[in-house]
Amino acid sequence: MFCFQCEQTAGGKGCTKIGVCGKQPDVANNLDGLTCALIGLARAAQGKSAGKTANELVRQGLFTTVTNVCFDSDRIKALIEQIHAEKNKLDLTAEDFAPSELWTGDTDIVSLRSTLLLGMRGMAAYAEHAAVLGKENPDVTAWFYKGLKALGEEHTAEQWLDLLMEFGKINLACMELLDEANTSTYGQPKPTKVTMKVEKGPFIVVTGHDLLDLKQLLEQTEGKGVNIYTHGEMLPAHGYPELNKYAHLKGNFGTAWQNQQKEFDNIPAPILFTTNCLMVPKSTYSDRVFTTSVVAFPGATHISGSQHIKDFSTLINKAIELGGWSEDKQFTGINGGKELMTGFARNTVLSVAGTVIDAVKAGAIKHFFLVGGCDGAKPGRNYYTEFVQKAPKDTVILTLACGKYRFNDLNIGEIGGLPRIMDMGQCNDAYSAIQVAVALAEAFKCGVNDLPLTLVLSWYEQKAVCILLTLLALGIKNIYIGPSLPAFLSPNVINILVSKFDLHPITTPENDLQAILK
Ligand code: FS2
Ligand code: SF4
Prior knowledge:
This protein is α/β, with parallel strands linked by helices.
């Protein structure tokens, strides 16, 4: 096996014996086979209209290969068979890409090709979340085929770089599509306080990013005496009016994905994984793990459904059987806070744009930071907690994705009635952050790079890769990134990104704050 797609890759170079994530070699090899079959499908679809089934397979196939999504070789092999059947309908002569060539060749070319593939894996997750809500963008769909086909071809470094920038722009369209799908279905997010107290009685913990799964579970548990708690990337669900209206959507349990083995160990409740990030479940709770859509783990109960309509009764019955705690339990975030705030998406932030602009002009707000991205297990990720704690009082912290659990329970005060930490949502809500930045730049009649705004990002998996490519494609410079640079970026590619985009690897919170605010 070979895999270097995530931040925790073995030795900062690549997993070759077993994944640090727990991915077994047979799973890794089958995931490579899946990628190569998708390239074959894209070759077969060239010049033809591929159709709904093929489009779905492309999205779901790429999504399946994202870190911590699918650990089940049987499911991957079944997907490959379906892809081959679709390919044969389109063109019997088209061949799969050779898995032996996926990660080999000239170092810089492998680096650029891998960056495109990994970005596309991330975008597939967003496209799938939009598709289950009935939203597709033909340009995004077409680009999956274009990108997959390109992965199986020879290109110069310049051509790969051009493809990466083109991809970054199409990923913006994909994030916009998902923003539109979410807000048109569930309403515009509103600032919402979320408790970390779990009430006595049966409950279910829901993690991952898929709001439709949560919505269906809320409908199916209504009036049954089973409470629902979000976990990880599901926290922003509380901000959406059409989800928040359910009184039994009670609060948030736990923190970011890498703490799940500790947090899920002793709870008297089942956990539903709607997307990444699933860690190998410990035997003490594996019978309480339920997966759905592309997420799968051998032995865990998988809930499927046609047309994305699902029957969650086995999960609900498990919650009733386990019964929950006999009294209320107060949990806290990693810094001891008992409440979290979410729901500061573009609509809310832009509705107070006048106040924000006045505060900047009057000098009350000196700088904005977008401190966001993925969380992970590395000790160096304390950087993000310290960065927020050490940021001067006249600065505002916008955040998104699961990296926020490093600091979202901190109370660092307000500026002009606005909290200094504003949670804009999940990782795909980077779209919201971009819209806010663009609107501020218009208000100040300057470019986004001239705003008193710095992006301080944390990365772990492939959605962070597609978001970074979008930011670079938009010409956003001076981004700080950590906790370490991706193993798939070769030294030459890093040099290009540093010289072209002033990309900075993080150092220490003190040094970086000083450099940014000087
Ligand atoms: Fe966090 Fe994991 Fe959102 Fe990433 S829950 S690292 O998938 O996509 O962020
Ligand atoms: Fe290793 Fe990450 Fe790949 Fe898992 S996803 S095998 S940890 S590089």
